[in-house]
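Wed. Picked up where I left off yesterday with S-(Hydroxymethyl)glutathione dehydrogenase. The coffee machine is broken again, so keeping this brief.
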Amino acid sequence: MSTVGKTITCKAAVAWEAGKPLSIEDIEVAPPKANEVRIQIYYTGVCHTDAYTLSGKDPEGAFPIVLGHEGAGIVESVGEGVTNVKPGDHVVALYTPECKECKFCKSGKTNLCGKIRATQGKGLMPDGTSRFKCKGKDLLHFMGTSTFSQYTVVADISVVAIEHDAPMDRTCLLGCGITTGYGAATITANVQEGDNVAVFGAGCVGLSVVQGAAARKAGKIIVVDVNPSKKAWGEKFGATHFVNPTELGDQSIQDKLIEMTDGGCDYTFDCTGNVGVMRAALEACHKGWGESIVIGVAAAGQEISTRRKFTPNSILGFEDTNFRQHSNLLPAECGEDVHSVVSRAALS
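Structure written out below (tokens, as returned):
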């Protein structure tokens, strides 16, 4: 029986309030309106940002809401005016849209898109309403994607088609984790052959930084993590060295990295969201030209301070590393390096 044009009842993990466990509920998902796409989600990743919002520490967090922003699935139906995808397409939902028309998209300087940013930030679709209901109440959307649901509705500029043979249990991570880390290395930092880099935190994002640095033929790629099991993972993804800060005795991780790289790293990447780690990453940079890229999201109000005499050239912070997911993930434009990332993205 066709579901096109009809409200679908499905399961979703609903966050009713901050600090409370997710609740599996039957929710109603309305049909897509003009320039919207309804997707049957097959796989979703779980990002620290989801946990951060659920914790209540996110000052912009609002409830009740359907979280999740790393999802892959199949288009169930499309609204009027949608031309970039069609029913049956395999797709990845994108929390960073790309309209290709706004000031941001045309600038060539950022991956941010301004077309639906205001409503997306409020947890609503572009027309200012929700497509989710549960127990008679509207549920908010999350980052324009809400992938913790069997079905979701997104704007047409927030979805990209992928090859049908691409494994969705891996491509879902292209929605955030992989593109964030890979883009941090290859676009934001623009790592060059021979550069020495240190990656703090070897989760999905950190390992994707490692992949990006390895693809650029970096010199030393040093993974820093307190979990010893991450050594093998780092090496699998291209790391040349592994350092566990808890095993250094009286030596700081900053001094250890400076020692290993003859004066400091060309690039350091924080993938933890811990301001103490951010400071260590900053102070491990080479004086004069080193750059520290902050990827992790710290709790609101926390600050980074440093007392080191010689500071790096710059600290770079960003949203999703300027990786234009819509353009860069199109099958016809997706380079072999990104295909390689997808093929190696099984993190479990």
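Quick read: The first helix runs from residue 48 to 55.
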